[in-house]
Amino acid sequence: MVSRKFRTLISIAALCGGVATSAMADDDPDAFQCAALNDHPVTPVLEGHNGVFFRVFLDLRMNHPFTDQTVDLLGQLADALRENGTELVFLPVPTKSLVLNDDLPKQASLYGYDIETATQVYRNIIERLRDRGVVAIDGQEAMQDGNPDALPFFQADFHWTAEGARRAAQGVAAEMDRLNLFAGMERGEYETTPLQEEIAFSGLRRQIQKKCKVALPEPVTMTYQTEAVGGSDADAAVDLFGTASSIDLALVGTSFSDMEISHFEGWLKQYTGLEVVNYAITGGNQFGAMLSYLTSQDFRENRPKFLVWENPLYNNLMQNGDQPLREMVAAAGETCTLELPSELSDRNTLTADLSGIALEASDVIHASAAGEGSREVEFRFETSSGAVRHKALRRENRLRATGNYYMPINSLGTVDFTKLSVTFDRTLPKTASLRLCRSQKENL
């Protein structure tokens, strides 16, 4: 049994002036007789100490774009959720080098990597998010806090082990407790028991092994099972689609959260004392799970008390501009209050007259197919002069086809639109609709 009040044994990082420091070893290891690892065209890697390998482009990156606009949009998302009863908890998963910096080879410095700078960059992101009102988790501090003999990351893969997931979940719960977010909530007691060691699938390890003569460490980790004390596990009452009367904690994220072998969902139960519904999507990248969940009927009809969003630090939230975050802000709020009178034509197109509406650059159009199944939609905006702007949204196959799309209009270059046509990829029912989302409702 692993107690929710698991006692910290030791901290990996030596702290100096509040910044984790590391003395890189004087030599570059070659325990596995590898050749040209850093020449791979897609994912070059470096061999570190103790069988730990680091990706050059992602694990050794120090510049993680996190602009003031990104911080503010995450703040807007947290505000929209909080106003409607949900607290966002954001966990930027630290890079492998931020946590296992003692295993970095000397060669890492030739790529310009400096652990003090990297740590300052990471902690600056956390501080700025917190200053904006976002509950942000310091994943580096959490994942370095534990038994140094139990690695938090797989040696030849980039995912966390069950131990790494445990430390991260403990850090999430500790910050939530520090902020008194559990006040007034009835929390359960959970027991976590070890099962057996298992080997995780690792495409990265397979890639590295092709250039090494000696067998690399397998991605082995102990697996666990978490159950409510007394056999009253609420899992029976909650399924993936949130059919319970209420959801305590919804988890969204990437393969880090979706990997059953790492047990992040179970560790969150253990340390928060709350039931967890996992909506994470492997291969969903930055926004797959969040967009799938926030645009779903599950979320709209049964909002959770807490929404934990796990996202690796190297996943740039502004990689494709501000549109995904603005779409999520609109989906998270209750601002889509004005239904736009529309006509259905060609079985899959809704057309609305916008001539009587003074649009603003911050407005968002909500197009609903009134049911799941749709994966693609095209917006056609027409101005009074006859100019046309086309914008499309698509949900890839890994994402849920919720049928709800939120189109920000701030990127269209004008708000002088008189007509809107929205074409879906399937036949629409009569209940399909278009709505205007605006945070300042009095300006409608």
From TrEMBL:
Listed pathway(s): Glycan biosynthesis; alginate biosynthesis
Record's signal peptide: 1-25
Coiled-coil residues: none
One example GO MF annotation: hydrolase activity, acting on ester bonds
Location of this chain's protein in the cell: Periplasm
Keyword Signal tagged: yes
GO CC terms: periplasmic space
GO biological process: alginic acid biosynthetic process
Limits of the AlgX/AlgJ SGNH hydrolase-like domain: 64-312
Predominant cellular place of this UniProt entry's protein: periplasm
Record's keyword annotation contains Glycosyltransferase: no
Keywords, ordered alphabetically: Alginate biosynthesis, Periplasm, Signal, Transferase
Pfam family for this entry, one: ALGX
This protein's name: AlgX/AlgJ SGNH hydrolase-like domain-containing protein
Species, as recorded: Litoreibacter roseus
Lineage: Bacteria, Pseudomonadati, Pseudomonadota, Alphaproteobacteria, Rhodobacterales
